[in-house]
């Protein structure tokens, strides 16, 4: 997925659809605050500062390596490239998402685990 690109969703479970739609919307330019309609009101996001971090970055590209789903839970691995809005610095990193959805398809849990962010080159 990359900014401005189209995303074809081929998913057979609610949790897979929720994950792909969430990441596709973020890459398309939706801010973390814009994404709240995809989350249950009591969703466990694991880190309150995540929205603030998301507001500081423009996500430019996401590659999903693996989506392992069973029932209402999924673990997703991938890589991401984002640009820091204040400086233009490009960052790249690997991530793991731990996601769960309710019967209504809303996300009830979304924990983001990141190994590290690196700056591969000048902005």
Number of strands: 5
Number of helices: 2
Which parts are unreliable, with pLDDT below 50 for 5 consecutive residues or more? 5-9
The geometry reads as globular
Strand arrangement in the largest pleated sheet = 1-5-4-3-2
Q: Pairing-aware structural class of the strands and helices?
A: alpha+beta
Order of helices and strands: HEHEEEE
Output mean pLDDT: 80
The profile of the biggest β sheet is: 5 strands, mixed
Helix content: 10-25%
> Which percent range describes the beta-strand content?
over 45%
Radius of gyration: 14 Å
Query: How far apart are the termini?
Result: 20 Å
Tell me the layout of helices and strands.
Elements: H1 14-27, E1 39-44, H2 50-56, E2 57-70, E3 73-84, E4 90-101, E5 107-118
Parallel strand pairs: 1-5
Antiparallel strand pairs: 2-3, 3-4, 4-5
Could you walk me through the main structural features you see in this protein, from its secondary elements to its overall organization?
With 123 residues, the protein is α+β, with helices and mostly antiparallel strands. The protein contains 2 helices and 5 strands; from the N terminus they run H-E-H-E-E-E-E. It has helices at 14-27, 50-56; strands at 39-44, 57-70, 73-84, 90-101, 107-118. Strands 1-5-4-3-2 form a 5-stranded mixed β-sheet. Strand 2 (57-70) and strand 3 form a beta hairpin. The longest helix has 14 residues, at 14-27. The radius of gyration is 14 Å and the shape is globular. The chain starts with 13 loop residues before the first helix and ends in a 5-residue tail after the last strand.
């Amino acid at each position: 997925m990359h900014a401005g690109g189209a995303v074809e969703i081929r998913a057979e479970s609610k949790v897979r659809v929720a994950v792909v739609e969430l990441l596709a919307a973020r890459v398309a330019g939706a801010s973390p605050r814009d994404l709240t309609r995809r989350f249950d009101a009591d969703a466990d996001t694991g880190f309150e500062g995540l929205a603030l971090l998301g507001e500081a970055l423009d996500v430019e590209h996401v590659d999903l390596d693996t989506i392992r789903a069973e029932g209402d839970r999924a673990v997703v691995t991938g890589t991401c490239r984002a640009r820091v809005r204040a400086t233009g610095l490009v960052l790249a990193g690997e991530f793991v998402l731990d996601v769960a959805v309710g019967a209504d398809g809303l996300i009830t849990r979304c924990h983001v685990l990141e190994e590290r962010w690196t700056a591969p080159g000048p902005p």
